[in-house]
Amino acid sequence: MSIGSDILPSPDLLAFHLFDWLNIARGEERETLLAVIATAQRLALDAFLPHYRQSDIEEPALHDDGVHILPAVKEALARFAELGLFGCSFPEELGGFGLPYTATLAIQANFSAANIATANYAMLTAANARLISTFGTSEQIRQFALPEIEGRWLGTMCLSEPQAGSSLGDIRTKAILEGEDTLGAGYRLTGNKMWVSGGDQNATENIVHLVLAKIVRDDGTLPEGTKGISLFIVPKRLPDDRPNDIVVVDGR
Ligand SMILES: Cc1cc2nc3c(=O)[nH]c(=O)nc-3n(C[C@H](O)[C@H](O)[C@H](O)COP(=O)(O)OP(=O)(O)OC[C@H]3O[C@@H](n4cnc5c(N)ncnc54)[C@H](O)[C@@H]3O)c2cc1C
């Protein structure tokens, strides 16, 4: 047993849960899944575990050109992408492995155990891409979800605001319709989001933010409560590669 491997879920225990209890795969499928879990464990020990302490010491830092993160985080995520692990639960036609979600959780558990902070970039990105691939148009999927499934871009969820955490009905970020193109209706968003995990980083060339906002009514007011909330795709760099008008500030 190599150093640190005892902090990962035991392969025998994972196999018991997946195959004996949940019965999610048999025969060849079972062998394939065990091989993916073994690969995930090696990567978790090799690229995620070694920097977990250092990433606490060297926190993400705000510079003039945005937020810089520990290079080891970037490298770990690049290796995660190389193995296609962002796509575990996505269908093959979207470039994924087509694994059952339960199997994906068993794979992801290894990275979360090794380094929860770095693993969460991947977890948030897969969740973001799943939402777009479930509810988006084919053009939105192509433009935003596919680069996330490949692991070239990372994704976030921007819900909370300085005055609205649990009470999302109170968000004040507003959206005003501004034209339409092949990606659908375009909106100009204005507002402040806070506590956004992975909100900026220098690991990937683009970030796909999923942002909650309220569409301004004709009389200029915002709808009350949670029923007035809509979800918008807000990329850090626009499809024509221009930077979007998003600014990260240190609120301390
Ligand atoms: C590590 C971390 C990562 C985060 N990442 C993100 C992110 O990626 N994107 C994002 O949008 N946000 C993120 N957040 C913000 C998070 O979603 C909010 O902290 C959360 O919604 C709670 O809001 P709040 O902190 O304002 O607490 P509040 O909403 O003010 O709650 C304070 C307390 O009151 C209780 N409470 C609240 N409402 C009620 C109620 N109606 N009835 C009874 N009790 C209630 C809560 O349980 C809590 O104990 C993150 C937070 C943390 C800590």
Succession of helices and strands: HHHEEHHHHEEEEE
Helix count from the secondary structure assignment: 7
| Number of DSSP E strands | 7
**Rg from alpha-carbon coordinates:** 20 Å
CATH superfamily of the largest domain: Acyl-CoA dehydrogenase/oxidase, N-terminal domain
What is the averaged pLDDT score?
95
Classify the helix fraction into a percent range: 25-40%
According to CATH, the fold-level topology of the largest domain is Butyryl-Coa Dehydrogenase, subunit A, domain 1
Structural class by helix and strand composition: alpha/beta
Characterize the overall form.
globular
Bound molecules: flavin-adenine dinucleotide
% residues in beta strands:
15-25%
The total tally of domains equals 2
Note the gap between the termini.
44 Å
Low-confidence region ranges:
none
Task: Offer a quick outline of the entry.
With 252 residues, the protein is an alpha/beta fold. It is built from seven helices and seven strands; from the N terminus they run αααββααααβββββ.
Structure description:
With 252 residues, the chain is of the alpha/beta class. It has 2 domains: 135 residues, Acyl-CoA dehydrogenase/oxidase, N-terminal domain (Butyryl-Coa Dehydrogenase, subunit A, domain 1); 80 residues, Beta Barrel (Butyryl-CoA Dehydrogenase, subunit A, domain 2), CATH 2.40.110.10. 39% of the residues lie in helices and 17% in strands. It contains 7 helices and 7 strands, in the order αααββααααβββββ. Helix 4 crosses helix 6 and helix 6 packs antiparallel against helix 7. It is globular and about 60 Å long. The mean pLDDT is 95. Bound molecules: flavin-adenine dinucleotide (FAD).
